[in-house]
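General statements about sequence and structure are easier to judge against a single worked case. No coordinates are needed to read the tokens, only the vocabulary itself. The sequence in question and its structure tokens are set out directly beneath this paragraph.
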Amino acid sequence: MPGYTVETPEREERGIRVTCEAHGDSEEFPPGRRRVAFYCEGCGYELEVTVHDTHEWRDMGEMC
């Protein structure tokens, strides 16, 4: 299975960039999207990525 790189570019508003390392296909998604789907034609795979911001993390006890 090919490898993928998931990055959050260093900018004021951070989006998500997903890259297929085997084929060099890359797509950058706009800020504000927590779940994105990246499809690489060379691989024939669709990769779904969910990003959680650590600033929004809460302890399970706080969620009740």
Notes: The CA atoms of residues 7 and 13 lie 13 Å apart. The two ends are 40 Å apart (CA to CA). The chain has a mean pLDDT of 82.
